[in-house]
Amino acid sequence: MPVSLAWPPPPVSAAPQRAEIRLGGDLVGDVDVRVCDVCRRAALEHIRVDAAHRRRGVTREALALVVAWPGYSSSTTVLEPEAEAFWRRVFWPTPELLGTPQWCEHMAEAESALGCE
Ligand SMILES: [Zn+2]
Questions:
Q1: Residues 102, 83: contact at Cβ < 8 Å?
Q2: What predicted TM-score, i.e. pTM, was given to this entire model?
Q3: Is 3.90.180.10 the CATH number for 3-104?
């Protein structure tokens, strides 16, 4: 079954948003990410896949979709050593940005606008 992501529009541009990870039509997880279309960067904060669907490539496929935007640089939040080992095993086009979040002023402005500083 194909893995897909369902992206609800963010409340304001560059705000944190949660995409649903779907396997066929079923919701099997979600991913939290901030995307700035001005700076063309994505900062991935968290990914969760239901235990029943782990170790089947779902997480890897979902991540490939997250980082598939052409011309965007994709980073992650700071990683614990165990998490970093996981991330280094999955496809990541900019390994130097693993654990080095590339937040921007627009993402900070979005947080202020939402009152979640
Ligand atoms: Zn920006």
A1: no
A2: 0.84
A3: no
